[in-house]
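We modelled the chain as a single entity of 275 amino acids. Its sequence is:
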Amino acid sequence: MVNALGKLGIWAHYSQVGDDVAREVEQLGYGAVWLGGSPPAELTDVERILDATERVVVATGIVNMWTADAAPVAESYHRIAAKHPGRFLLGVGIGHPEAVQVYQKPYDKIVEYLDQLDEAGVPVEDRALAALGPKVLKLSAERTAGAHPYLTTPEHTRQAREILGEGKLLVPEHKVVLDTDPERARSIGRPKVANPYLKLTNYVSNLKRLGWTDEDIANDGSDRLVDALVLHGDAQQIADGVRAHWDAGADQVTIQVLNSDPLPVYRAVAEVLLS
């Protein structure tokens, strides 16, 4: 059983979380470090960060089912969970099917992969599923501890909570830029939203379900869409955006900092939300 994640986590590419950063994040009071970028099945960076810290939970956000087979991932889970009990949450998902040679329907791939994790003895309560649409959100409630939506808004969080029901984990990711100049902040956030996400079917479909239009999505995203997907401003404004997810039903919000140096942002947000 994974320890409580706390209300706030960080999300970063697995190669960009150094041991010193992980230790400081833990000391600041963040409850989890989510490792993105489709870490390989060996999960050596998960183990490295757990070795370097004492309490923080490390989660994958996510292991890509198309590129990391379930059997070696399960072996890695058992190795890490035995060494660091209660501190590893295995997040899995289909990532970006457009980027790989797809021979199977995405939903069928998810079900098959979860079946394989069952067979390998990975506990339901120690794994989470990347989920955006209602069908996969429902599956995450049935087959895992809960959902880890990416590139979403508090409105999506509200809808996801209704589908998941109470007692299931809901941890949305949200991008942030600590900068009070809106134009400068958008110049940082827009490229990270537009490429590749506004060109990927699953993310565009999700945004349209939430009411965003073709005009919002065109030309690398309208200002209104970028502002919704990338929190920006001072630490208090970012904190208000995080609280909107909490109010909508999120258990934890995991922030992905887009500033070139994330540590000052982690510190500033923690001072407002965790002090």
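As a brief sanity check on the tokenised model: The radius of gyration is 17 Å. Residues 8-175+239-258 form a domain with the TIM Barrel fold (CATH 3.20.20.30).
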